[in-house]
Amino acid sequence: MERLRIAIQKKGRLADDSFVLLRKCGLRFSVRGDGLLARVKNLPVDLLLVRDDDIPAFVAGGASDIGLVGENVYQEEVLTHSALDLEIIRRLGFSKCQLALAADKDGPICGVVDLQGAKIATSYPAILQAFLDKNNINAGIVEMKGAVELAPRIDIADAICDLVSSGATLEANGLAPFATILKSEAVLIKSKQALCPARQDIYQRLLRRIDGVVKSQDSKYIMLNAPADAVARIAEILPGSDAPTVIPLAGNPDLVAVQAVCTENVFWETLEDLKAVGARSILVLPIEKMMG
Questions:
Q1: C-alpha distances in angstroms, 147 versus 19, 73, 261?
Q2: Is there a shared CATH topology between the 97-184 domain and the 219-286 domain?
Q3: Was domain 4-94+186-216 assigned CATH 3.40.190.10?
Q4: Over the chain, what HEC string results?
Q5: Alpha-carbon gap, residue 97 to 182, rounded angstroms
Q6: Closest alpha carbon to 157 in 147, 142, 171
Q7: Which residues does the UniProt record annotate as the domain Histidine biosynthesis HisG C-terminal (predicted)?
Q8: Is the pLDDT of residue 256 over 90?
């Protein structure tokens, strides 16, 4: 039987988040020690556990059918190797970070224009060069494989271009970010070449599940009671909602139960606005899975 092959980062935050996504999609598998292959027990799917920067090449070369990878890694590899015939199929909404420019918080570099003639340390030279070219900045690039934030302190660069999540590492090294050049998240990538029919069927089945999980992440199910004449105003308040379901309440023709799926964040202010137009007994529930 044909089996769909998915390349995933072996270890790290992206790996952990990817495993969570696939398990939410109903895939049952075990990852053991230094193993490079995990077989899914209930679907014809194999997980290839590799370095994140190898994932684009695995997918482009046909060793893997699809891959879950950080957009920062994907963009760097595509810019470096223009022959990679890949495309982003879905943005997955997790493992978010920013590729940012930073410099000594008390130094002379405070903006992009100050980089003219400077040296910049980074692990993403291709993305950085594309950004510099776009902004007509002539600067030197010092490529590093790690510990980029140390470069200004040891005088090998004037600024850095590195991944930032909380900013704590920059602050600990006396650096301050001044420009974001890429907002990254996990993405699902695939070769532009067609899969064989058997693998295509498995892929489409998995893709529907992924869509259901991703869509449900920010979605909420709202239930409330309200006067029948307030339904139109309630529908206007509910964020990202299609037409709500309205059910008459037994024994009280003036009251209805309103139910809706909201695909945008529901804040306390939303609940207060609903209450102000007559809603009561308001429940906001998380959604685990969705399928259209």
A1: 27, 17, 45
A2: no
A3: yes
A4: CCCEEEEEECCCHHHHHHHHHHHHCCCCCCCCCCCCEEECCCCCEEEEEECHHHHHHHHHCCCCCEEEEEHHHHHHHHHHCCCCCEEEEEECCCCCEEEEEEEECCCCCCCHHHHCCCEEEECCHHHHHHHHHHCCCCCEEEECCCCHHHCCCCCCCCEEEEEECCCHHHHHCCEEEEEEEEEECEEEEEECCCCCHHHHHHHHHHHHHHHHHHHHHCCEEEEEEEEHHHHHHHHHHCCCECCCEEEEECCEEEEEEEEEEECCCCCHHHHHHHHHCCCEEEEEEECCCCCC
A5: 9
A6: 142
A7: 217-289
A8: yes
Residue 290 structure tokens: 């969705």
Q: Which CATH class is domain 219-286?
A: alpha beta
* Segment 73-104, tens digit of pLDDT: 999 999 999 888 999 999 999 999 999 999 99
The full set of domain ranges for the chain reads: 4-94+186-216, 97-184, 219-286
Closest alpha carbon to 196 in 62, 10, 55: 62
Residue type, 215: K
Entry pTM: 0.84
Could you please state the CATH topology (level 3) that the domain comprising 97-184 is classified under: D-Maltodextrin-Binding Protein; domain 2 (3.40.190)
Amino acid 252: pLDDT: 86
Cα dihedral angle (86, 3, 10, 16), rounded to 10 degrees?
A: 90
**CA-based nearest residue to 116, from 142, 135, 103, 100:** 135
Query: What is the spatial distance between Cα 283 and Cα 209, in angstroms, rounded to a whole number?
Result: 26
